[in-house]
Design a protein that fits this description.
129 residues; mainly alpha; 68% helix; flat
Length: 129
């Protein structure tokens, strides 16, 4: 098998893995949506509900799952465009090890580190009270 064929096979396998993860995430999302619909707490004035905390946790979980679906879709789009595994910041290949752990990543490890450092500097030093 040539290098190009090997690369195409790895991309095909990655696509299948992302599709499987997408299916799992979408099933989880549907379950959370169902729970939110079935377990809507009473928000009446002066009336609380122990279900309120659980409902809010499900709202947060739904948001995280929707974000995951969006990232996985971007990864699938990048596969379709022939850009999967290429860093959007520097244009260099993203390591197979990094993609194995973070299949939806668009940044190589170096660029991800640099961006994290930039964010950290923008936040400034932590203040102790």
């Amino acid at each position: 098998m040539s290098s190009k064929e090997s690369e195409l096979e790895l991309i095909r396998q990655e696509r299948q893995r992302i599709l499987a993860e997408m299916k799992d995430v979408q099933e989880d999302l549907a379950d959370v949506e169902r729970q939110l619909e079935e377990n809507r707490p009473d928000f009446g004035l002066g009336r609380g509900s122990p279900q309120l905390y659980e409902w809010e946790m499900n709202l947060a979980r739904r948001d995280r799952l929707q974000g995951r679906v969006e990232k996985l879709q971007v990864a699938l789009d990048r596969i379709q465009e022939g850009k999967y595994g290429i860093c959007v910041r520097c244009g260099q290949p993203i390591s197979a090890e990094r993609l194995a752990v973070l299949p939806a990543t668009q940044l190589c490890a170096k660029c991800a580190r640099e961006l994290a450092e930039q964010r950290k500097k923008r936040r400034g030093p932590h203040r102790h009270r």
